[in-house]
Amino acid sequence: MAAAAVAVGAGEIVSGLLGGGSIIAAVGSLVISLQPPGAKDLMVALFGENDKLALEVGTAIGGILVGGLLGLVARRDLRFGIGGFVVFGLIAFALLQRDPLATAFVSAVSAASAVLAGIAVLRWLSGSLMPRPQMAGAAPGSQSVEMGRRGFLALAGAFVAVGGVLAVVGRYLSSQVPVAGPGVAIRTPAGTDFALDGLTPIVVPNDVFYRIDTRLTTPRLDAETWNLRIHGMVDREVTLTYADLQRMATVEQFVTIACVSNEVGGRLVGNALWTGVKLTSVLDSAGVKPEATQLVGRSFDGWTSGFPTAHLAGAGKDALIALSMNREPLPAAHGFPARLIVPGLFGYVSATKWITEIELTTLEAFDAYWVPLGWSKLGPILTQSRIDLPRRSGHVPLGAVEVAGVAWAPTRGISKVEVRLDSADWVEAELSVPLSTAAWVQWRTTLDVAGGPHALMVRATDGTGETQSPGPTPVAPDGARGYHTVSFVAD
User: Fold this and answer.
1) Angle at which helices 23-33 and 78-96 pack, to 10 degrees?
2) At what angle do helices 23-33 and 51-74 cross, to 10 degrees?
3) Which end of the chain is less packed: N or C, by CB atoms within 10 Å?
4) What is the CA radius of gyration of the chain?
5) Helix (H) or strand (E) holding 396
6) 149-174 vs 2-18: helix axis angle to the nearest 10?
């Protein structure tokens, strides 16, 4: 186990220094690709946006446990343990090569470093336990060992710690991409942001905007060599470079996007000012055939989303190939050089980051990434609302208490938000001035609160007059339903 820990750490530090793929990330990506239905839902429910970190830690621990299994085999013959490290080194190289951004050279050096480091520690620690002849003058046939049990365990533990430190440093180096700043401060018209302390801002800064995707490492794509291919059921195949998109007419639009894994009252939702080229303009240049009923977005690593082309003729007519977020180039973590932003649809069916292909096909001909894993093929964002103030399990003073939050129903807008304290009647809240029908709104009102524990509930009505479903339902297969409820104490 100590040898395996050092092997993992050595592979990570070398790949981090050379700027290549991570073995931990490569194994984690394999786990993601083999996940059963419901696994994503469980991981996000347990760890939220830390689900990737949890997977990476679990992968590293799994590698150490595999080393323990090899050790049991190697008790009879050390060559079995050495052979095991070689086999897993070959597997690591093969997994690294699955990443389109990994080079064969860096993958080979990283895998070889892990193998050699693991074998070296295994041989040295094993040798320290081997009996050796006693010094001259000792009883005939007696033997001694290199070190005692406690000393050996302490040394082995030290190697595990060293391996862990190397792995952490290596992962840190591998993840070094330009960190998203907050973006340019977006000035919105009067009345669009209540600017209350503790209330989510109407425009979420880039550096705190939620991120959910299947990547364990943030891709570093080169805009100079990147291109976007439009093909499939089109009159003519079109390939556009980053410079081509920059030369085209761009539009700005406030759009709220959300993850289908967002629990009632969750934070996997955000609103930003997106700038880019209208998707319909690009599709018009290719000439979409009438029989095409599905648009498939494909990321550089093969991840896919898919939604009906009919959505672009209706609620999603303002969909973008986005190049900027809050008036800054897309941060690497949010899809640089380009991504899709499709108002009204959950991200898993539409918001392809690091996009390299758009394919026109039929709904029957192709199932995108999440559909075989049990998620709905259609993913309209539900009408939802959230309480930001007061905080859950918080304390508020007696008397007049200001309560506030956000509500969203992209492409339909929000017409009304109501709150209810305990079993009292529903009270209509004040809404902020909408930025667009595709963006969320803030809401607020003041309630007279008596002493003791209370429960505050919220519900929203969209622009069509439909009130959100009381639920409750789980997030799978097409989003959570229910009224967000916050308990607090007035004293």
Assistant:
1) 70
2) 100
3) C
4) 28
5) strand 395-396
6) 20
CB–CB of 419/403 below 8 Å?
Answer: yes
Look up residue 473 and give its amino acid: T
Within 8 A by CB and 6+ apart from 185, the residues are none
CA geometry: angle at 68 spanning 62 and 71, to 5°?
Answer: 145
Residue with tokens 């190289």: 93
In the predicted structure, residue 140 carries a pLDDT above the cut 60: no
Tokens 């556009």 correspond to 240
Report the alpha-carbon distance of residue 385 to residue 381 in Å, rounded.
12
In whole angstroms, give the CA distance from residue 312 to residue 275: 18
* pTM (predicted TM-score): 0.84
Q: Two tokens at 216?
A: 């364990």
pLDDT for residue 180: 60
Q: Quote the DSSP letter at residue 267.
A: S
Query: Which tokens sit at 453?
Result: 């524990």
Asked if residues 297 and 355 have their Cβ atoms less than 8 Å apart, the reply is yes
Task: Collapse the DSSP code of 56 into the 3-class scheme (helix H, G, I; strand E, B; otherwise coil) and give the result.
Answer: helix
Mean pLDDT of 324-351: 97
Distance CA 470, CA 488 (A): 21
Q: How confident is the model at residue 38 (pLDDT cuts 50, 70, 90)?
A: confident
Q: What's the first-to-final CA gap in the chain, in angstroms?
A: 54
